[in-house]
User: What shape does this take?
Amino acid sequence: MTLIALEEHLIPADLIDQVWPALPSGTALHAALLDVGEQRLRVMDDTGIDMQVLSIAPPGAQEVPAAQSVTLARALNDHIAETVAAHPDRFQALANLPTPDPAAAAVEARRAVSELGFCGVMISGHTGGRFLDAPEYDAVLGTIEELGVPLYLHPTYPPPEVAEIYFGGLEPPVRQALSTAAWGWHAETGLHVLRLAASGVFDRHPGLQVVVGHMGENLPFSLMRADAVLGGARPGERSVAEIVREHVHITICGYPTVPPLLCALAVFGADRILFSVDYPFGDAAVHTRFLAEAPISPADREKIGHLNAERLFNL
Assistant: This one.
């Protein structure tokens, strides 16, 4: 089975202090994020992954001052482009955007796709508490739509005010887990998608396609409830559920268990589910084995493994 893995992360060694200064050096995670050669390719070969679509580990260039963000995003994308050029049959890439400067983000999206050959862009959630339905991001979304590439909407850390209200009073390890991968990331990203759908973003950008990870960021389980309640609040010909299922694709990363997959298949269908590991945060062997053994048809397995990615990202 051919496998194309989306949302596979890296950080350039010479830029790590700007992207993720708190990452402890000397750890396995540190080494895996910096490596784009022998170690990464060996993991891919050992687990049967044919291609990784690379992206900068969040928050990338999104949580620095606007002027620095523009310079940093260009440097990050240039570095990824060099990595892809070294192994074009094994790597592709999603562009990092300087969202603190929305106008520059649109320019960088065009450069990364048109000049560097990237197959999509990644934005990590809110920027300073502003979601992508804010008016200043309309031109960025319009540029992505015009380029004909998907937007991968990745989680990011909650704003300090939100973190204090929802996760305050907890022991630090519990606070960190609940605010991120245990719950907060997924709830916020699902909310972000619903904001885009309910606020008219997809009506203004009918060609825009969005990808979210983690088996749909809680959307498969909750979409019908959200649709029923939002239906009375949002005028329009299409329901929120119809909008989401026409514009949103999901990946399996982080959820290698059968019940969430079956729910996602029932709500989104096999044509909108894609393979992902979230390397090096996710275990490639666990994810490839899960897809190989999942109780689904061979045709759906091929769609999820590579066919949907080839179509959506024009690989």
